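Section 5: illustrative case.
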């Protein structure tokens, strides 16, 4: 985008000592020593140069005192932006005790959870924006057979972490059609029964694209625990050229046209019916998948598009591209 940028990846949790691990567990967060280390490193970086934009992405443990001092070090010209794809109002997401007071030191907040915009605003962060998830076109793309390591076609795939709320969904699809990849599927009570269809490890980047590209149907499930209305999969799946089958939400239907570009369901019965239908109607399935791919590509949903939107909002400029 024509800007010079530097990256800092704070190590809040890198401790090998027993006492450090115990302290982390008791605190439900980083140790005091780790927070002090990050505090000093972060402020040192800000003091070493002149910055126009400080973009904090998904770091929930920068203390209020750290952010107050960071504003002084960076200078009055710097804009501070916070972005998170987590539901930070959920008790299940770890964050610092003074996280919400630290937000007062940011000029803008961006969240992928549209329902949280009003919550941030009610806390005094008026410049809070809903910013949808995105995909990376160099990674999330149709993978040709010549590049594939999978070597086969999958009827229905799901890539995602195990949650108890997803059990009834995968059971409804049927293990004769479905394959699953993701963390913690060892917790599934039928894991041993279907171990040839379950790959209990996280999948990212090109591996994700390879699996999705070679799936007739890819499930774009949401997490009830996070109150998702859409996720990264909402864009990653069609960008890889697969037909997405997802829960029917107004947010998802704001991005894709149901029956033309995406298939949706409200109930387990409708889910099973849609799976059975599209697996036996290949021409219609391919047509919808292609339409979803074209809509995704034309819709300006890449990470660069999102970054341009962030920069435009931070400096109160009009975003010039379709968003």
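Designed sequence:
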């Amino acid at each position: 985008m024509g800007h010079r940028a530097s990256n800092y990846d704070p190590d809040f949790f890198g401790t090998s000592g027993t006492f450090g691990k115990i302290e982390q567990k008791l605190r439900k967060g980083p140790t005091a020593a780790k927070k002090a280390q990050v505090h000093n490193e972060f402020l040192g970086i800000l003091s070493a140069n002149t910055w126009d934009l400080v973009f904090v992405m998904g770091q929930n443990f920068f203390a209020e005192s750290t952010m107050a001092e960071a504003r002084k070090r960076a200078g009055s010209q710097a804009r501070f932006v916070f972005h998170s794809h987590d539901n930070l109002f959920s008790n299940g997401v770890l964050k610092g005790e003074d996280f919400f007071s630290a937000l007062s030191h940011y000029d803008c907040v961006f969240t992928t959870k549209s329902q949280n915009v009003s919550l941030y605003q009610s806390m005094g962060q008026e410049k809070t924006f809903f910013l949808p998830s995105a995909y990376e076109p160099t990674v999330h793309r149709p993978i040709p057979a010549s590049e594939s390591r999978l070597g086969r076609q999958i009827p229905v795939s799901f890539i995602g972490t195990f949650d108890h709320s997803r059990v009834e969904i995968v059971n409804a699809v049927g293990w004769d059609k479905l394959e699953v990849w993701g963390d913690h599927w060892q917790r599934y009570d039928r894991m041993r029964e279907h171990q040839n269809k379950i790959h209990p490890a996280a999948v990212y980047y090109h591996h994700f694209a390879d699996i999705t590209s070679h799936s007739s149907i890819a499930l774009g499930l949401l997490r009830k625990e996070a109150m998702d209305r859409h996720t990264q999969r909402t864009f990653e799946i069609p960008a890889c050229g697969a037909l997405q089958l997802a829960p029917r939400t107004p947010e998802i239907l704001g991005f894709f046209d149901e029956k033309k570009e995406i298939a949706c369901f409200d109930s387990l019965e409708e889910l099973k019916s849609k799976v059975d239908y599209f697996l036996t109607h290949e021409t219609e399935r391919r047509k919808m998948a292609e339409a979803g791919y074209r809509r995704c590509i034309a819709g300006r949903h890449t990470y660069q598009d999102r970054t341009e939107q962030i920069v435009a909002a931070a400096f109160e400029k009009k975003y010039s591209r379709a968003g």
